[in-house]
Design goal:
The protein is an alpha/beta fold and about 550 residues long. The chain contains 19 helices and 19 strands. Strands 1, 2, 3, 4, 5, 6, 7 and 8 form an eight-stranded mixed β-sheet that branches. Strands 11, 12, 13, 15, 17, 18 and 19 form a seven-stranded mixed β-sheet that branches. Belongs to the AccD/PCCB family.
Length: about 550
């Protein structure tokens, strides 16, 4: 047993200050999450209820198994844009009849559930998650199709949404559509491309063009029911496989479809699993203490082992190469019984030794078919004459090569800084981790705001002096302040989450639970490593 012995003094003033700063960030997040939960707002939610309909979240709650968790993904999509935060769709992983499923629910209280550019990006991201992890997809459909004022950004790339559904089906991953209301134009193709379709008598309306469009296009007079009603599709067109009496009945039928899938996980079960149960040993330290580990000033280092001790089973962690490349902590652990290899930045900077250590560790994880967890707090790879001559480029490239070609599942959590190529080496979004989450304390950019502003100032000064001019110090200071403010605003988790550069900003105390759900979802697909990496420069 290699139990981590925590050195955190929870009674220290610094710890209390860290907790206060983290709680302040969580309060800011809570305000945004409240907006997401509000959907289209009180007026439109009330109008929706008066029609005898459940909200998107109520439909999900009824669909998933009682008292089971729902891991919502990308809830802040569209933050900072002209569109409602959440992008008019609720997505996440939930357990239905004992089977983990990817659930996509249009929110009709937000512009009729129409798809704007952020809706599209969010759905495409969830389709990737379903494909990579072999998760059955359940679409709770009530959508007016594309948001017409932004059709130029939605129409052309939007075709991939339907292509993805057919490819999931071709890969043997079940797709199920429960149609709760109007599903027009692009919204009609979701049931059209799904393996199983449930429609509700008197409620579901599925057509490529509604009566007004048909009238304009062909001169034909028709009503909703004969053009696209549930009974017509169940009895005439054959698009509807099941005819439900009401919303609750549609959910019941949907659950029965999942129960009959005979869906089996293809990945490993948690170590120690027996008779469908696994004895899990909780960490030896309280998750509440995670609020006080990361300082608000990310220039102040912290020990990632303190995070690991509060996340992994029994706080048990076998560290790999602890004396070599100490700025990167690597080792083996379990989370909810699932084996993981962990790479966690210890002092921020990645040197040549850390890069070589990471490369070897990633290869070992692939040999043992072990998923990898990356805990980010890096300012990037070290710069300077000594380090360039020592081969930092080829050693950093070696680490990035290993991350790029590794085939075991990766999960990334940004807990502190994630700057420069260090973001890449630690498996940032561009490197296709199965899941990527951020703490409210995280920041990510090409470099820190102060450093970036300073670099631009140096380049600007050099250009001015080369022209024979004189630097205006006041203007230079103003430019630096403006750039610093811009980069700070663009580096914070809510902004990055709004851009879908992560799958959600999470409360640090929920980290273990979130990782457990992700590892369980990952195990729906085979977990297989590789020995096929690119050429490593030695």
């Amino acid at each position: 047993m290699t139990i981590i012995r925590s050195k955190v003094d929870t009674s220290a003033a610094e710890f209390a200050a860290n907790v206060e700063a983290m709680n302040s960030k969580l309060a800011e997040l809570d305000l945004e999450f409240r907006k997401v939960l509000a959907g289209g707002g009180e007026k439109y939610v009330e109008r929706h209820r008066k029609r005898g309909k459940m909200t998107a979240r109520e439909r999900i709650e009824l669909l998933i198994d009682e008292d089971s968790p729902f891991l919502e993904l990308c809830p802040l999509a569209g933050y900072g844009s002209q569109f409602t935060v959440g992008a008019s769709v609720v997505v996440g992983i939930g357990v239905v009849e004992g089977t983990e499923c990817l659930i996509v629910a249009n929110d009709p209280t937000v512009k009729g559930g129409t798809s704007n550019p952020w809706t599209l990006r969010k759905i495409l991201r969830t389709n990737d998650i379903a494909s990579q992890n072999r998760l059955p997809v359940i679409s709770l459909v009530e959508s007016g199709g594309a948001d017409l004022p932004t059709q130029k950004e939605v129409f052309v790339p939007g075709g991939r949404m339907f292509r993805d559904l057919t490819r999931l089906s071709a890969d043997g991953i079940p797709t199920i559509a429960l149609v709760f209301g109007n599903s027009t134009a692009g919204g009609a193709y979701v049931p059209g491309m799904s393996d199983h379709v449930v429609m509700i008598d008197g409620r579901s309306k599925v057509f490529l063009g509604g009566p007004p469009l048909v009238k304009m296009a062909t001169g034909e007079e028709s009503d909703d029911e004969e053009l696209g009603g549930a009974k017509m599709h169940a009895r005439v067109s054959g698009l509807g496989d099941y005819l439900a009496a009401d919303e609750q009945d549609a959910v019941r039928i949907g659950r029965r479809i999942v129960a009959r899938l005979n869906w089996q996980k293809q990945g490993p079960a948690p170590i120690g699993a027996a008779n469908g149960r696994v004895e899990i040993v909780e960490p030896r330290y309280s998750p509440d203490e995670l609020l006080g580990i990361v300082p608000p000033d990310l220039k102040i280092p912290f020990d990632p082992r303190e995070v690991i001790a509060r996340v992994v089973d029994d706080s048990d962690f076998d560290e790999f190469k602890p004396e070599y490349g100490p700025s990167l902590c690597t080792g083996w652990a379990r989370i909810h019984g699932y084996p993981v290899g962990i790479l966690a930045n210890a002092q921020g900077v990645l040197f040549s030794a850390e890069s070589q250590k990471a490369t070897q560790f990633i290869q070992l994880a692939n040999r043992s078919n072990t998923p990898l967890l990356f805990l980010h707090n890096t300012t990037g790879y070290m710069v300077g004459k000594e380090y360039e001559q020592g081969g930092i480029i080829k050693h950093g490239a070696m680490m990035i090569n290993a991350v790029s070609n590794s085939t075991v599942p990766h999960i990334s959590v940004l807990i502190g800084a994630s700057y420069g190529a260090g973001h890449y080496g630690m498996c940032g979004r561009a490197y296709d981790p199965r899941f990527l989450f951020a703490w409210p304390s995280a920041k990510s950019a090409v470099m820190g705001a102060q450093q970036l502003a300073g670099v631009i100032s140096i380049v600007s000064r050099a250009a001015t002096e080369a022209r024979g001019g004189t630097v205006d110090e006041e203007a230079d200071a103003g430019m630096r302040a403006m750039i610093e403010a811009q980069i700070e605003a663009e580096s914070v988790p809510m902004f990055l989450s709004g851009m879908l550069y992560d799958d959600g900003v999470i409360d640090p105390r929920d980290t273990r639970a979130v990782l457990g759900q992700c590892l369980s979802a990952i195990a729906s697909a085979p977990v297989e490593g590789t020995s096929n990496f690119g050429v490593f420069r030695m």
